[in-house]
Amino acid sequence: MASQRDVVFTQFMLRVRAALDGADAQTPLRLRPSSFKAVAPGTDQWVALRARSEQVLAEANAMLNGRAALVDLDDEVGTGELAFVLRRGELSTRISMSQTGRQARVELHRSYAPVTRPVEPEDPQVLEDLVIELLAESRRPDDG
Fold it and tell me: Tens digits of per-residue pLDDT, 22-55?
């Protein structure tokens, strides 16, 4: 049931709350095969994802605070790539940009969902779906 306070929450914050309350708030991730592009557009894509991740995690953690473990954001340094990691417990999603000559490629790797070929988010809004996926995956019982 919606409260008067719900007017200050974004739609994403309401999805996080619904996921915490046990609802299935997941949507299929909009991913595409990762491809090489010129360095400038590749860097722009990665920077847009990194910037959006700040806002997404601020909203998610505002809803998680006091109810569940927060989602962390870690920047990687010294790897030779631009990279950041969204982490919740043992689960992580890494978004990186590697460069070969004058070409760059953005890649998304999830510790809990191996892929056979490199993929990238279709747009920065995918970060919301990734956070919801991290919440759902961390609730699943171990298969082992």
Answer: 898 888 999 999 999 999 999 999 999 999 999 9
CB 72 within 8 A of CB 24: no
Give Rg (Cα) of the chain. 16
Contact 121, 49 (CB under 8 A): yes
Map residue 10 onto helix, strand or coil: coil
Angstrom distance (rounded) from CA 24 to CA 26: 6
Residues 92-108 pLDDT 10s = 999 999 999 999 999 99
pTM (two decimals): 0.89
Enter the DSSP assignment of 113. Answer: B
Count the neighbouring beta carbons within 10 Å of the beta carbon of residue 62: 13
* Closest C-alpha among 123, 126, 116 to residue 86: 126
